Amino acid sequence: MSKLSCARKLALDVLMEAERRGVYARDVLSSRAQARALDPRDAAFASRLALGVTATEGVLDELLDRFIDKPNKIAPRVRMALRISTFEMLYLHTQARIAVSQGVELVRSGAKSAAGLANAVLHKVADHVEVFAAADDVSEDERRLTRLSRVLGLPLWLCARLLERFDGESGLRFVGNLAPAPLAVHENAFLDTPDPFEASLVEPVFPGCHAPVDAAAAVGSGAFERAAMVASDLNAQLIATAATRPGSCLEIGAGRGTKTFVMMCQAKRVGFERDHYALDLHERKCDQNLHRLRRAGISGVRTIAGDACELDDTLASLDARTGDRLHFDTVFVDAPCSGSGTMRRHPEIPWRLTEHDVTDELPSLQLSMLSEAAGRVAPGGELIYATCSVFEEENEHVVDRFLHSVAGSDFSVAPVSDAVIFSDDRYDAARSMVALRQNERGMFQSVPVDSDAFDGHFCCRMVRR
After folding, report:
1. 412 has which bridge partners?
2. Which of 127, 121, 65, 122 is nearest to 99 (CA)?
3. How far is residue 149's CA from residue 152's CA, in Å, rounded to a whole number?
4. Residues 335-383: pLDDT tens digits?
5. pLDDT confidence bin for 218, thresholds 50/70/90
6. C-alpha torsion sign, points 348, 351, 356, 358
C-alpha cells in the first residue's frame, strides 16, 4: 500500500468543496489554509490537479464510464478521485503504476469498500488511455474533431464552434492550454508613495499596467490585500482604459470593481474629473467593490445594486434626487457573457456552458442591457460595450442588432483606438496595442492563441450623435 500524497488529497478536498458549495475551485484553493502550508511544489501540483480536473471533467467521465458498470451509482467522492487519476494519465502523462496506486489510495481515504472497484477501473483506463487520446475508437470522419475535444478537454460542440470561428487548429491553442494564464496587474495611482512590491516589477507596459507578473510573488507580497494593485488581464485593462473619459460615467456590470479601480486610476493619472456610478445586480459585489476602493483611497464612486435591464427602476432614486432623468457622458456595459476568452482562468466554464447560451440566451440578455443603457447616454456621449467572449454571436452580432434597432438609431461605431485618453502621448503603447487588435470597423477583439497570450476580450465604442 503506497502512501497517499498530500497534494492529491488536497486537490480532492478542494474539488468536493467546490462542487458541494457551487463555487469556483480556484476560490476554494485560495482560501484553504492547507494549500498555504504545503511545500510550494506540492501546492502547485494540487492546484494543477484541481483546476485541470475541473476544466476536463466531461472528457474524463467519458473515459471512466466505459469501465464502470453502473456510472450513475458511483458516489461523488469516488468519482472525483477517479477523475484525478484519469486526468494524470490522460493530460499529465503520469506513469500508470503511480496514477493507479495513488487513485486507489484516494478512493480508499473516503470509501474503503470502493478500493477494489477503483483498482479495476483505473487499470482499464491505463490500458486504453492512448487509444482514447488519439480518438482511434471513432470513425475517421469524426476523428479530427473528437481528438481535439479530448486533447483540449472541451465539449464537442464547443470545439466545433471554435474551429468554425477561427478556421483551423491554430485558433484553438489557447483553449487547450491547461497551464495558468499570464498575470497582469494595475497599480494604485492614489498612493502617496509606491508600494514596496512595485520595485520588483517590470516597467509598465502602459501607465499603470505591469505584465507579465509572477503570480506567486504578487500574492505573497500582500500587495493585493493592501489594495496597492489589482490583478487584471492586460486586454481587460486596455478596454477599461479606453472607457476612461472626463465627466459622468455609468459602469454597468461592475462586479467586484476591477475595471472600476482601473478607470479611476487612469482618470487620476490624466487629470480627468469624474462622477462615477458602478452598477451591479448583486448587493454583495457592490459592497466588495466599495470596500476595496476605500482601502485603496479612491473616492468619487457610488455603487448601485439593481437590474441593468430595468434601468429606470434601478436609477429611480438618483433621478428623483436630481429632479430629472439622469444621462451620462459615458455608459460602459461590461456585459455578462460566455467567458469563452477566459477559460484558462475559469476552468468551470466549458462544462457549464451550453451552445444555446452562446447562440440565444446570452445575446438576448446582452442586447436588452445595451438597449436599456443607450437611453442613459447623453447627446455626444459614448456607449461602450464589452465582453470576455470570442464568439461573434455575443459581440459584433449583438452590436449590429442594436445599431439596427430604434434604441441604437442615434449611435455610430467609432474606433476604440481613437478613445479620448489615447490622445495623451503616455498612452501611445496602449493605443498601438488596441489598433493591432481592431477589425476594419474599429472594434477590438483579442484572442489568446498561446500560453503567453493574454485573454480574449471584445470592445465596441459607440458615439451618440
Report:
1. 463
2. 122
3. 5
4. 999 999 999 889 999 999 999 999 999 999 999 999 999 999 999 999 9
5. very high
6. positive
**What sign has the CA pseudo-torsion 411, 412, 413, 416?**
negative
What number is the average pLDDT over the span 210-215?
Answer: 94
Please classify residue 356 by burial: count the beta carbons closer than 10 Å to its beta carbon, then call 0-12 exposed, 13-18 middle and 19+ buried: exposed
**Pick from 174, 286, 289, 177: nearest CA to 235:** 174
Between CA 363 and CA 340 the distance in angstroms is 14
**Dihedral sign for Cα atoms in the order 257, 258, 264, 268:** positive
Q: Long-range CB contacts (< 8 A, 24+ apart) of 395-399?
A: 395/443, 395/445, 395/458, 395/460, 396/443, 396/460, 397/363, 398/363, 398/366, 398/367, 398/370, 399/370, 399/443, 399/460, 399/462
pTM (2 d.p.):
0.93
- Going by the DSSP 8-state scheme, the letter that residue 192 receives in this structure is S
Give the burial class of 148: count Cβ atoms within 10 A of its Cβ; 0-12 exposed, 13-18 middle, 19 or more buried: buried
pLDDT level of residue 178 (50, 70, 90 thresholds):
low
Distance CA 140, CA 397 (A): 34
Model confidence over 147-176: pLDDT tens digits? 989 998 999 999 899 888 876 555 555 555
Return the SS3 of 163: helix
Q: What share of the chain is helix, strand, coil (3-state, %, to 5)?
A: 55, 15, 30
Using only the alpha carbons of the chain, give its radius of gyration: 24
Q: Which three cell numbers stand for residue 91?
A: 493530460
